[in-house]
Amino acid sequence: MKVWDAIIIGGGHNGLVNACYLQRAGLDVLVVEKNDWVGGAATSRELAPGFLYSNCSYVCSLFRPEIMRDLELPRFGLQVIAYEGGAVFTRDGDYLANYRDHDAHRREFARFSKRDAEAYDRYARDVTRQCRFIQPLLMRTAPDPTSLRPRDLGELLYLGKKFAGLSAEEMALTLRFWTMSISEFLDEYFETDVIKANFALSGIIGTALGPMSPGTAYVLLHHYMGEVDGSVGAWGYARGGMGAVTKALAASFKASGGTIRTGAEVDHVLVGRGKARGVVLAGGEEVYCKLVVSNADVKRTFLKLVEEKELPDIFLRRVRNFKIRGSSGKVNIALDSLPEFPALPKDSPVYRGDMHFTDSVERMERAYDDWKAGRWSADPFLDMVIPTTLDPTMAPPGKHFMSCFVQYAPPKVNGREWTDADRDGFAESVIAQIADYSPGFRDRIVHMEVRTPREIEAEVGLTEGNIFQGELTFDQLLFNRPVPGYAQYRSPVGGLYICGSSTHPGGGVMGAPGRNAAADILRDLAKSTSHMSPAHDVI
Amino acid sequence: MTSFETIVIGGGHNGLVTAATLAKAGRKVLVLEAGSEVGGAARTEEFAPGFRTSAIAHLLSRLHPDVVKTLDLEKHGLRVARADFVPSVALSKDGPPLVLHGAYGEVLTGASPSEQSAWKELRAQLLRYAGTLKPFLSRRPPDLAGMSLLESASLGQTALALKKLGKEDMRDFLRVLLMNVADLLDEQLGDIRLKGLLAFDATLGSHLGPRSPTSLLGLYYRLAGETAGVAGAQALPQGGMGAVIAAIRAAAEGAGAVIRASAPVAKIIVEKGRAVGVVLDNGEVLHARTIVSAINPATTFLDLVGPREIDTGLMRKVKNIRMKGDAAKLNLALDRPPQFTGVDAAGHRGRLVIAPSPDHVERAFNPCKYGEFSLEPVMEITLPSLADPSLAPNGACVLSAVVQYAPYALKEGWDAGKPKFLKAVMAQLEAYAPGIGKSVVHAELLTPADIETRYRMPGGHWHHGELQADQMLISRPVSGWSGYDTPIEGLFLAGAGSHPGGGVSGAPGLNAARRIIAMKG
Amino acid sequence: MARQISKKPASKTANTVVSARIAAQSHFRTLRLGTPFQPRIDALARTQDWYNWAGYHAPHSLWDEELEYFAIRSQAALFDISPMTKYRIEGPDAEALLNRVTLRDVAKLRPGRVHYTAWCDDEGFVLDDGTLFRLSPTRFRLCSQERHLPWLLDSAIGFDVTVEEETEAVAGLALQGPTSFAVLRDAGFAGVEKLKVFDLADFPHDGGSVTISRTGFTGDLGYELFVSADKALSLWDRLMIAGELRGIRAIGYTALNRARLEAGLIVANADFTTAEHAIRADRPRMPDEIGLGFMIDLKKGHFNGRRAILEARVKRKLRHVLVGLEIEGNIPAEHAIVYYKKSREVGLVSAAMWSPMAKRNIAIASLERPFGDTIVEDLWVEIYAMRELQYQKLMKRAKVVARPFIKLDRRTANPPADF
Question: Per the database record, which ranges form the GCVT N-terminal domain (chain C) (predicted)?
Answer without folding.
Answer: 66-300
